[in-house]
Amino acid sequence: MKKIGQTLLLAILITGCKNEPKQESTVIDEVKQEQIITSIYPESITKVFNAHGNIEQWNKMNTLSFTMTKPTGKEKTTKDLKTRAELIETPTYTQGFDGETLWINEKDGNAYKGKPQFYKGLMFYFYGMPFVFGDDGISYEETEPLVFEGKTYPGILISYEAGVGESSDDQYKIFYDAETGHMQWLGYTVTFGKAEGSPDFHFIRYNNWQTVNGLLIPKSIDWYNYENNVPTEKRNTVEFTDVVLSEKVLDKAMFSMPEGATVID
Hints:
Blueprint: H1 2-39, H2 43-51, H3 55-60, E1 63-70, E2 73-80, E3 86-89, E4 93-97, E5 102-106, H4 116-119, H5 122-127, E6 138-148, E7 151-160, E8 172-176, E9 183-188, E10 202-212, E11 215-227, E12 230-239, E13 241-246, E14 262-264
Antiparallel strand pairs: 1-2, 1-13, 2-3, 3-4, 4-5, 5-14, 6-7, 7-8, 8-9, 9-10, 10-11, 11-12
């Protein structure tokens, strides 16, 4: 009986030793996977991503929504972060994109006078900083820093491979705080509807952040006037309220074109 007891105890100990390394290996594999994902980006943009909660956390999210208050009333944007389907709801019209079809649904006889192709995804892109620069088809380069009111901000030039997005000739510049890594400025060109790229950079200041679901995202942004491709004085502020950033997957039907809506070619 004593020998049987010793044999049984030895078997239990061996079984326990076999199980422990598997748990440790799983943890190591997860760390390695995170390092692999992060390593596909240059060090500078990785520093910015990490300062805002890291790109891996952003990639877990499926839904983003936010509201802006405009002179005509509240404008709510809802975005599927994986398919980039979008719904923009305002008092006078609704604009939608189901991943393939762009549509406008006018309300109460209000004629829509905007540019839906240009506006599709526009505010989402400005709001999703800096994480939208983790998309595929993007190139990163160092650029000259921005000096504003005596402070120097290191810069990253963002450009796109041909055929990526609506305006692949667009260029962006992120300027960030060298100590914290927080994004502070965005410079961007506007090439939509133009035959070639633009040399003029517009500027948005990002210095008011909020934490939602582990990610540091804008609470408001400031558009600046510019001269000689540098910002001068603040022009206006856009605030974001009712922000939702979630892993929840939305019903695709919410982006579908309703009866009576107009397809935008």
